[in-house]
Amino acid sequence: MKINRHYLDLEKSYLFTDINHKVAAYQASHPGQSIIRLGIGDVTLPLCPAVVSALEKASAEMGVKETFRGYGPEQGYDFLREAIARYYEKKGVTLQMDEIFVSDGAKSDVGNILDLFDKDNTVLVPDPVYPVYVDTNVMAGRKVVYANATAENGFLPMPDDSVDADIIYICSPNNPTGAVYTHDQLKAWVDYAKKKDAVILFDAAYECFVADSSLPRSIYEVEGAKEVAIEFCSFSKTAGFTGTRCGYTVVPKALVREGAELNGFWLRRQTTKFNGVPYIVQRGAEAVFTEEGQAQTRANIDYYRQNAKVLADTLDSLGIRYTGGKNSPYIWMECPNGMKSWDFFDLLLEKAGVVGTPGAGFGKNGEGFFRLTAFNDHENTAEAAERLKKLLGELLNR
């Protein structure tokens, strides 16, 4: 028996686990201290009424012999896949129903999709980056190279023809930086992938926060993208399903490598290793796409957008540089006075009782930056903004 020694190449713990340990230790030594969390990207508003109603109805169905459901299709029920296809039509994108696969969330599929690819492939990820992209490939022993995302390029790295890559990760709106690619920028990545015979793994988990109609919300809005890209999306941020768990992955039939359709590969993988998302949850997800559900989820998204504006306005008043906050629930701010990310984390926790995410946890280019999220209620966000303003004002005036 031999272990997978690539696990030894990983950091000993996950970024957000480290943050939780630090916060727990602080709270233990400061009982009663008010802590406002703007760190992890977990929503705080409840599921909307349309979704709750659908969940209740589906639950009742499961208690009646005539409407009880057992094992469902691993790729998702037709009623939800049809609803997702109609949602894409509104973006000007036509999908076949069997190109859509329902999952328990984008995070799972972003890691599981790697079953389709050889371990000798080279993986290109931006830096800073969502840790899952890197860790899942390190676990498999793949070579990972980085595209530098910096303040100079607006944290939106572009293709470099001198770099060879087989698998390319793109997240737009980006986690952690909040930056969003334009149509022309994504077209450049599609053209690069065609030139390199590469596959783009496009994470669109935050597409619902794009308010600027000129910005793409799906990579399939770019001509030719179906030949090179797999897209992942989730109901977590769209409709508050972080505790309910549901997402979907699109694998176009036009995506062919070495004479094989990757759509067929993914179907085979899912039918072998995945038992599908519960019927009750899929009925809840279907309700998101009803007229009532769309109105209610948009109201929740607008609520978080207001929080992002409060934080952005605070940083604007202090003259602190940042990206995000307008088409993204994340604000990626520059640490004051050249501070290191973890040093600023500790200071913010100890002096202001506010929790964020150190940029260094997302890669070397994240050092000196800090991520704040809009996923809290208005009252807490406003209080956090005041605490930030006070602390940062003192630091900048030293």
UniProtKB/TrEMBL annotation:
Substrate binds at Y14, G41, K107, Y130, N175, N275, R371. One of its GO terms (biological process) is lysine biosynthetic process via diaminopimelate, diaminopimelate-aminotransferase pathway. The modification N6-(pyridoxal phosphate)lysine is found at K237. Signal peptide: none annotated. SUPFAM superfamilies: PLP-dependent transferases. Its EC number is 2.6.1.83. Pathway: Amino-acid biosynthesis; L-lysine biosynthesis via DAP pathway; LL-2,6-diaminopimelate from (S)-tetrahydrodipicolinate (aminotransferase route): step 1/1. Pyridoxal 5'-phosphate binds at Y71, A106, K107, Y130, N175, Y206, S234, F235, S236, R245, N275. CDD domains: AAT_like (cd00609). It comes from the Bacteria. Its cofactor is pyridoxal 5'-phosphate. It is an enzyme of class 2 (transferase). It catalyses: (2S,6S)-2,6-diaminopimelate + 2-oxoglutarate = (S)-2,3,4,5-tetrahydrodipicolinate + L-glutamate + H2O + H(+). InterPro entries: Aminotransferase_I/II_large, DapL/ALD1, PyrdxlP-dep_Trfase, PyrdxlP-dep_Trfase_major, PyrdxlP-dep_Trfase_small. Residues 35-388 form the Aminotransferase class I/classII large domain. One of its GO terms (molecular function) is pyridoxal phosphate binding. Keywords: Aminotransferase, Pyridoxal phosphate, Transferase. Involved in the synthesis of meso-diaminopimelate (m-DAP or DL-DAP), required for both lysine and peptidoglycan biosynthesis. Catalyzes the direct conversion of tetrahydrodipicolinate to LL-diaminopimelate. NCBIfam families: DAPAT_plant. Homodimer. Belongs to the class-I pyridoxal-phosphate-dependent aminotransferase family. LL-diaminopimelate aminotransferase subfamily. This is LL-diaminopimelate aminotransferase. It comes from Candidatus Faecivivens stercoravium. The lineage of its organism: Bacteria, Bacillati, Bacillota, Clostridia, Eubacteriales.
